Amino acid sequence: MTRAETDPGAVTDLFVTEPVADRERDLLIRAREAGVRTALVTEKAIAGLTDTVHPQGLVLVCRQPDAELPPAPRLVAVLVDVADPGNAGTVIRTADAAGADAVLLLGDSVDPYNPKCVRASMGSLFHLPVLRERDPDAGFSRLRAAGLGLVVADGGGETVLGPGTDDLLAAPTAWILGSEAHGVPAEVAAQADHRVRVPIRGRAESLNLATAAAVCLYASVRAQSAWARETQAATPVEGPR
What is the pTM of this model? Predict the structure, then answer.
């Protein structure tokens, strides 16, 4: 069997217009060598396969991988009832950039394979596990079972994100984020271990979801990196015997 037939999430089909095929000959060669089925199609056919105004002349069909939380995760981004595909895709991209171990979409969140979400993720959808769970309670149980603490990003949170949260964020953490319009539902936020707010120094009413996610995730990255350095420095090194 070819790699395209056995690799979950692999590309299985490639549709391309003739101008793009002439320009991207190496891509087509590599695709065929990997066992990907390729087909030359018209501009009209490509337009029917996509929902963009100006298609780029190339469409890939991929298998959806069976995503699972990796062993001993340290950082996970959780979206609750985030229906906007652009926001969800951008958070997936941000989580990937921050080195998060996974993204979990809970409740009535958008399908991560929505075309707009895929485009907004800029490929990051295929770089890390992206999981879906309709029931928030079940999702939280999975996160706790993996050893993660649950931290809600909440504009009304009792704890202010900053140097005082370093010890909290040094531990394995799942950041829970809600929609821009409604935030995390109160009954969901109540199940978290901590509610943390990002301080706003100016007159802005709030941050958009992707910006808040970036601030929170990178705060965890900084805290966990500092903890790792301190732990390494405190570990005694045996000299030669």
Answer: 0.82
